[in-house]
Structure formats: structure tokens, C-alpha cells
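Exercise 7b. C-alpha cells:
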């Protein structure tokens, strides 16, 4: 047998092991092929796929790029390259790789799906929806594609279309927990809470460690006036991820509504939680705001409710009365609502996709003099931001009636009632 034939046989044997799930055995044979024939693009590519499956993303990128160096015309090489790039947060590169795969073979549904996932990571949701639609047109019976399309439609708040996509995914794969979760979310957004709970309960029945589903259930129970059930759902979520800041916030706030809640207990819980955040935040930075009485003060408002929401509506009349010759108003929107109040502010910034450290840095860079918390321990609250004190003066107002317990909050805006 010629050496070429022997290598082809070994590559075929490695592929069989790979398909059976024997990654270690397949990797040994792939590496032997590469040792014997370093320019074997298929062996390099499949070795990269094994590394990807083992979550060795940097290694996967190096190997698949080596494969492309020997054979740049294979669409699946570029499509698979997009995956570890996406996993490492290198989203523009991931999009470039997936787009190249589509250019090489437009009939490749997986490449369109990977392109859609890269676009999702870049918050280009309408383009992502189009990419997933193309994948579905090529391969209509794959539940994952419909679930991805539902995610993109949910991101652009087309809840009816998203509901249809999730239902199609569930029809194709009734055990698709993520599609059930997505369905629960869009039903909740449409205030169809009983249906939403039913979908979410099916999701956690399939995957008891689905923390996001437990968290969403807790939110629905809270909104439905069922604090005991909410606290239990949050407990289950915290068993899975004890450091989930969103669940910790919701848990602290919801316990305020328990029948046996005492003011001293409420204060103690808030202080315990906020002190944990303050310790994590570390020392207060030196503020560089210029104490010039002639300049306009910069006031920042942090909220997830600056749109179609009662807090947003109540805020409008106050904002309209502020003298803009004396004050500059900055909005830091922690979620995206319909009809955002951008016309009420000098500067509008979305911080919903930023990690707390970046939001803190942005506020500090803007030179905010007075930072107002309109959320407290409610949905889209940002207690980690206020724990770091990015502004020299911080206060709470309107959105949360209880105490945050944060020692770095200087004032609460209220009246004697």
C-alpha cells in the first residue's frame, strides 16, 4: 500500500472514531497523519474540530487556520473557524470567517447559521434574523435554526414572530429546553403569564439546572404577587449560579414582600448584599470633576425604565422642568424599551450589553457630578455600578421604594410622606 493510501485509510479510521465520540482516539490518529503529512488540510481541520469540541479554542483557531492555509476553498473550514472565534468574543473575526464560508458555498445552511450567531453577538439582530431565515430555507427541519431565529426576533421585539419560531422549534424537537425558555420569555413579554409559566416549567423539567429559566419564573411570580413562589424559584437559580447578580438583586427585593418581612430584616438583607458589592468594587476612585461654579453640572440617570414604563412617564415632567442652561442630563439605559426617551437627555447611552466595569468606566469618563439610581433592586438595576461610586455624589429616586443598603449612596430623593 502506498504511503498516500495508508494516510487516507488512517484519516478515514480517525473520522470513524470521531463520529463515534472517541475524541482522544481520533485525535491520536489525526496527529499521526499530520506528523506524516504536515500539509494535510483535512487532518488539520478535523484536529481543530476536536480541539473545539474540547473547548481548546485558541488551539482550534490555530489548527483550522493552518488547514485554510493549505486549502482556502473549503467552506466548512471557514464556517468552523467562526465558532471558536465567537466563543472567545472575537466577533468581527467570527463574522468574517462565516461570511467567507457563505461566499464559498451559499447552499451551506450551517455557514448561514454561524453567520447569524456572529451577527447576534454584534447586536445586528435584523441581519441575524435574515441569516437564520436563509439557513431555514436551506434546511427547514432543524429545530436549532428556528430557535436561533426566535432569539433574533425576540431581540428586535417582534414577539409574535418569535413565538411562531419557538413553537416551530418545539414542534420539531419537543425536548428543546432553550426553545421552551424563549417561548416563555416572549409570552411573558406579551403579559401571557400563565402560558409563560407553563413553557418555563417544561424547560426546567427537561433541564433542572437551567438557571435563566428559574430566574424568569421568579420574575413572573413576583409580578403576579406570589413572593413565596418567586423566592423558591430564585433559590433554585442561585443553587446553579450563586453569583448571578440579577438573581441576587431580585431575591433581595422580592423578600421585602413576604408576609413575615420585618423592616429590620429588610434593612439587614440590603446592607449585607450591598456590602458584598462594595467589597468587590474596592476603594472609591479619585474623582476628577472640576469644582467650577460656572460650568454646567452633569447629572446621570441610571435606569432600565426610560421608555414605555411608569417610571419613565413619571420622570418626563421632572426632566422637562430642569434648566438645561445649568445642567446637562445623561441617560444610562440598562434595558431597551419601546419609545426610549432620548429626546429628554443631552446624552443617551445604552449600557445593557456592557459588563459593570465598562459601565462604571463610561460614567466616570463622562465626568458625571450627580448619579441618580432610578432602579434600585428592580429589573435592570445596576447596584454594582453604584457600589463603585463612579460619581462623587450618588442618590436614589423613584424606581425603588426600599433601601438599597448601599453605604455609597449619599441621599434619597423623597418628601415627608
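Sequence design result:
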Amino acid at each position: 500500500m502506498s504511503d498516500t493510501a495508508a494516510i487516507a485509510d488512517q484519516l478515514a479510521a480517525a473520522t470513524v472514531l470521531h463520529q463515534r465520540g472517541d475524541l482522544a482516539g481520533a485525535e491520536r490518529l489525526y496527529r499521526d497523519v499530520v506528523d506524516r503529512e504536515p500539509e494535510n488540510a483535512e487532518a488539520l481541520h478535523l484536529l481543530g474540530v476536536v480541539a473545539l469540541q474540547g473547548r481548546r479554542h485558541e488551539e482550534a483557531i490555530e489548527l483550522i487556520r493552518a488547514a485554510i492555509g493549505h486549502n482556502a476553498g473549503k467552506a466548512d473550514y471557514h464556517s468552523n473557524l467562526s465558532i471558536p472565534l465567537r466563543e472567545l468574543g472575537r466577533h468581527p473575526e467570527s463574522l468574517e470567517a462565516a461570511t467567507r464560508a457563505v461566499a464559498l458555498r451559499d447552499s451551506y445552511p450551517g455557514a448561514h447559521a454561524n453567520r447569524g450567531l456572529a451577527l447576534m453577538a454584534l447586536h445586528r439582530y435584523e441581519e441575524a434574523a435574515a441569516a437564520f431565515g436563509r439557513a431555514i430555507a436551506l434546511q427547514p427541519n432543524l429545530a436549532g435554526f428556528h430557535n436561533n431565529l426566535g432569539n433574533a426576533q425576540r431581540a428586535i421585539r417582534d414577539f409574535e414572530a418569535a413565538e411562531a419560531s419557538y413553537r416551530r422549534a418545539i414542534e420539531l424537537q419537543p425536548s428543546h429546553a432553550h426553545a421552551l425558555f424563549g417561548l416563555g420569555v416572549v409570552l411573558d413579554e406579551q403579559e401571557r403569564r400563565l402560558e409563560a409559566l407553563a413553557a418555563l416549567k417544561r424547560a426546567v423539567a427537561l433541564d433542572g439546572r437551567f438557571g435563566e429559566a428559574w430566574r424568569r419564573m421568579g420574575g413572573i411570580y413576583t409580578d403576579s404577587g406570589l413572593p413565596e413562589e418567586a423566592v423558591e424559584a430564585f433559590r433554585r437559580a442561585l443553587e446553579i449560579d450563586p453569583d448571578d447578580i440579577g438573581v441576587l438583586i431580585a431575591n433581595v427585593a422580592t423578600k421585602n414582600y413576604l408576609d413575615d418581612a420585618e423592616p429590620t430584616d429588610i434593612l439587614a438583607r440590603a446592607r449585607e448584599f450591598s456590602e458584598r458589592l462594595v467589597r468587590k468594587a474596592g476603594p472609591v476612585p479619585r474623582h476628577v470633576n472640576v469644582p467650577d461654579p460656572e460650568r454646567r453640572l452633569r447629572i446621570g440617570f441610571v435606569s432600565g425604565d426610560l421608555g414605555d414604563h411608569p417610571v419613565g412617564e413619571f420622570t418626563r415632567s421632572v426632566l422637562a422642568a430642569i434648566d438645561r442652561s445649568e445642567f446637562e442630563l445623561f441617560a444610562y439605559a440598562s434595558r431597551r424599551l419601546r419609545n426610549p426617551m432620548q429626546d429628554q437627555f443631552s446624552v443617551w447611552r445604552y449600557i445593557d450589553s456592557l459588563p459593570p466595569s465598562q459601565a462604571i468606566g463610561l460614567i466616570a469618563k463622562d465626568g458625571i457630578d450627580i448619579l441618580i439610581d432610578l432602579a434600585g433592586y428592580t429589573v435592570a438595576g445596576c447596584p454594582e455600578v453604584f457600589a463603585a461610586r463612579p460619581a462623587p455624589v450618588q442618590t436614589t429616586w423613584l424606581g425603588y421604594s426600599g433601601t438599597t443598603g448601599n453605604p455609597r449612596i449619599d441621599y434619597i430623593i423623597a418628601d415627608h410622606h
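Instructor comment: The mean pLDDT is 94. The longest strand covers residues 297-303.
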